[in-house]
Automatic annotation (TrEMBL):
It comes from the Bacteria. This is Carbon monoxide dehydrogenase F protein. Residues 118-231 form the XdhC Rossmann domain. Coiled coil: none annotated. InterPro entries: MoCofactor_Util/Proc, XdhC_CoxI, XdhC_Rossmann_dom. Residues 11-75 form the XdhC- CoxI domain. Transmembrane segments: none annotated.
Length: 257
C-alpha cells in the first residue's frame, strides 16, 4: 500500500495521524527530499524519513504536532555548525548520533473534524445537519431504534426526535463516552426524562436539555444555530484541559532523541 492509499484509508476510518515529508536533505543523511511517512498516535512510523536517531526526534515532534493540531517544520541537525537559519514555524532538534547531514521534515497533522450525530427526521434535525456541513463537521443522520444506537466516535449527539426511545439514546451516547449529548425538549419534559435515567453527576453534566444557548431562537434554523453554538463551546472551550498549543509545540520541538 502506498502512502497516498494509506492516507485515504486513515481518513475514511477517522484515525488521527501525521503526514511527514522530507523537504530538504543534506548529505550524508540517509533520507532524501520527497521521502514520506505516516506517524500514528501510538508512535508507529509507516514509511521512511530518516534513520533511527532521526526517527526518534520525528516521532516526538509529530506527537506534539498531533496534540496541538498545528503543522511544524522540523529541522534535524547533527552536532556542530548549523547551516539552516532559524525561522518562524520551525523547530530544531540536535541528534549527536546522526551520522552527518541534516534534514528538514514537514509534519502535517491530520485530525478528523468533529463528528455530529443527529437523531431524528424533524425540521430541527434537518437544519442542524445542513449547518454542520457548512461548518466543515462530519455529520451522520440517525432515525434509529434504541437497539440500533451506536455512537462510537461521535463528538456530539443531538436527539431531535420529539419522542421515541430518547432515554435509551441518551444512555447509549453516555456509555459510548460522548462528551456532549443534546436533547430537544421542553425544560419540564427534559428534566423528567433525566430524573428517570438516574444519572451520575458526571453524566448529567454531559447532557444538555433544553438544548442550545439561550438566544431566543424560534424557527428550526435559529434553534439549530443555538444548538451548534453550544456544541462549538463544548468542543473548543469546555474540553480545553491540556496545555496551550504553543507550550506543547515547544516541548515537542526541543526534545532530543
Amino acid at each position: 500500500m502506498t502512502i497516498t492509499e494509506r492516507v485515504a484509508q486513515l481518513r475514511r476510518a477517522r484515525t488521527p495521524f501525521v503526514h511527514a515529508t522530507v523537504v530538504r536533505a543534506q548529505q550524508p543523511a540517509s533520507a532524501h527530499a520527497g521521502d514520506e511517512a505516516i506517524l500514528l498516535s501510538d508512535g508507529t512510523i509507516e514509511g521512511f524519513v530518516g534513520g533511527h536517531c532521526a526517527q526518534n526526534s520525528v516521532r516526538t515532534a509529530a506527537l506534539g504536532a498531533l496534540q496541538a493540531g498545528e503543522s511544524v517544520l522540523l529541522r534535524v541537525l547533527p552536532d556542530g555548525d548549523v547551516h539552516y537559519p532559524e525561522a518562524p514555524g520551525a523547530c530544531v532538534v540536535v541528534n549527536p548520533c546522526l551520522s552527518g547531514g541534516a534534514l528538514e521534515i514537514f509534519l502535517a497533522p491530520q485530525v478528523p473534524p468533529p463528528l455530529i450525530r443527529v437523531c431524528g427526521a424533524t425540521p430541527i434535525a434537518e437544519a442542524l445537519a445542513s449547518m454542520c456541513t457548512v461548518l466543515g463537521y462530519d455529520v451522520m443522520r440517525d432515525d434509529m431504534r434504541d437497539d440500533e444506537a451506536d455512537f462510537a466516535q461521535a463528538t456530539a449527539v443531538v436527539i431531535a426526535t420529539h419522542g421515541g426511545p430518547e432515554a435509551q439514546m441518551i444512555r447509549a451516547a453516555l456509555e459510548a463516552g460522548v462528551g456532549y449529548v443534546g436533547l430537544v425538549a421542553s425544560k419540564v419534559r427534559g428534566q423528567a426524562l433525566l430524573d428517570d435515567l438516574d444519572l451520575t453527576e458526571e453524566q448529567r453534566r454531559r447532557v444538555h436539555t433544553p438544548v442550545g444557548l439561550p438566544i431566543g431562537a424560534k424557527t428550526p434554523a435559529e434553534i439549530a444555530v443555538s444548538i451548534l453554538a453550544e456544541v462549538i463551546r463544548a468542543i473548543r472551550v469546555d474540553d480545553r484541559a491540556a496545555a496551550p498549543a504553543e507550550t506543547r509545540r515547544e516541548d515537542a520541538c526541543h526534545g532530543h532523541g
